[in-house]
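INFO batch 0412 | record 1 of 1 | parsing
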Amino acid sequence: MLSTYQYPKFEYRCPPELSAGAEAQVVHHPVVVVGAGPVGLAAAIDLAMQGQRVLLIDNDDTVSIGSRGVCYAKRTLEVLDRLGCGEEMVAKGVTWNVGRTFFREDEVYNFNLCPQPDHHRPGMINLQQYYLEDYLVQRASTLPQLEMRWKSNVVSVSPGEDMVTLKVETPDGIYHLETDWLVVADGARSPIRTMLGLDIEGKVFMDRFLIADVVMKADFPTERWFWFDPPFHRNQSVLLHRQADNVFRIDFQLGWDADPQEEKKPEKVIPRIKAMLGDEREFELEWVSVYTFQCRRMHDFRHGRVMFVGDAAHQVSPFGARGANSGIQDSDNLVWKLKLVMDGKAPPRLLDTYSEERGFAADENLSNSTRSTDFITPKSTTSKTFRNAVLGLAEHYPFARALVNSGRLSVPAYLTDSRLNTADAESFAGNMVPGAAMDDAPIEAAGGQRWLLEVAGNRFQLLYFADDAAAIDAATAQALASLAEAPIPVEPVVVAASGTAPAGLLTLIDTRGRIAERYDLRAGSCYLIRPDQHVAARWRALDPAAVRTALAVATCNA
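INFO prediction complete | emitting tokens
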């Protein structure tokens, strides 16, 4: 039990397959998601929002125990906005953009995650994972296409060419079901990965960290603080984050020889916290755990009709907030592709690009996480001497600050080498290259939207820029409208400095010129946007044939 949060108990219902009078038959489901953590819930919600009937199965009947994941990055918040629960997250969470790094008693380095103005979401919020799961379950419960089954444990999986058969154990007995597609989000230990005999490769780092969630009233700023060799925990490192409800997350490096069970005892934890905070500050222990760094991934995230997402597919050390953030971006990448395949609008090979694109992102995360871990926990005297020399220089010399690594924080991967992209034929400035996740910007629109990303996503769209939307001629308006008539529709969206586009075309007013600035737009410029808010292609002039060709490339129909 926690003093600041009451765990919900989700209702278990006897599944129809085991209900009194039900015939012994195997029920077929179009898609099944296993695991109701943040990633599985996000995938199931996304599918249901796009009109797909989906079954979500979990072996528990509540949210995660302890705060676990804490930091949620700007891109993840934008995905959660699209899923309909970002507002609750930001309202409850602790917003921060600034991080500070200390060496012994001195600050040597700081950073700002969101230095640009006019973004809807902050660089990062801190919020206990059980709140995120709670909000996602509440959102899921509003979607009639989504069925959730609690206290349902998958005990065997039999993949086939045309479907996957699952054996599920419940308090009322065991039943079987079939599904066309299985999304596996059952966590780092992934029983389904083990059942299928699939490997996960990488390394386990020889170090341990203590997590202590502490309830206290403190006037610490809402920033990320990281210490190397502080006076209260010599020769080790410490991380401090503020969360909701006056809960502070403190991570203490322990070393590999530490006994995890002993270190979790209050008589061991409390003196460490007192040494850090001082004897006079009152606090209450909320939750304690010990963890070991792991940086591992599956070679392929797709195995026929079975797709692995989140920790089931890849694991990283917690410094850098790359776990839940990358997992939610996995589901963001997968679901639109799966929906097109299920609807018969794209070939199954489109799902291979899920493994390719998110495998690239996982490698990027693993590389950053490994470097962070090596810097935080040097493995030799020489490495430690180098690390301390860098920290000593960082306070005074910019070149050394670039070498300080207390966890490179989660940012979206630039999928520039994806085969779904169409390469630029003309010159553009800025970061919105094919493969990039969209930058946000303030807008005005007839629907009352205030931000670009409130309008983008869930379908293919073409952003067309005009100085004056009212000046768009009939031929251009007809060419734009024709894109919505394809088997895979492309919604035309006019972005303009002023005016209203001809009837049938959505107009967004670039109120502060940020879209033009961030996307390097001039009159006639176009961007093809994927359903997951990534850039697929861009041109300096509208060419409907080129748009259709790029759409075919982006859906593996070329």
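INFO post-check: The chain has 15 helices and 25 strands.
INFO record closed
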